[in-house]
Amino acid sequence: MAARRRGRGGSEADARRAGSRGSSSAARARMTGKERRQQLLDVARALFAEKGFDGTSIEEIAHRADVSKPVVYEHFGGKEGIYAVVVDREMQSLLDLIVSALSAGHPRELLEQAACALLDYIDHSTDGFRILVRDSPVASTSGTFSSLLNDIASQVEHIFGLQFSAKGYDPKLAPLYSQALVGMVALTGQWWLEAGKPKKEAVAAHLVNLAWNGLSHLEHKPGMRTRR
Asked: pTM, whole model, 2 decimals?
């Protein structure tokens, strides 16, 4: 299991090691403003994933990038600024994957594609996912994992709406069920990242099995069997 966790996101581990070699002559080479900004974002992304917002300092970002602190302030204004850019980029990257996955197909295929898209993101952008699910001082802004899940849920509402209308269920409940589905997939993804097994395809298949077969046997007027 440990070996699998080391394997997942290996390219990002390589990127972190490459970022830490900021003292090399290549890193000291003069960069354009755009190149320097991207370098700082890459370094900060790795540090935020490794240590979180609170555990990362401007000093450490500057040191790993082999620049002075004023350079970081010049580009981003401070730690909150660079963190916000990193989070916004990760959110957009994941949302783009989900939107693309939901572009066409049978409703069950759309569920499969959406689940696989999220798991692919976790697998290949492990640092980004760790950043998104961490709490941070900017958690009250729009740049949060919660708001991202809301955006994703809105993308899958039409799947439920169409299925509900076709089977005689109230389509007004589509937002509730889309939130439940997206939350289930996201939390399972967090668990899978740490557990390291089973294989990604198996996780996606089980998620879709629960979601799709659950949808196939919904009660038209569900009620509680116990009173509170």
From this structure: 0.73
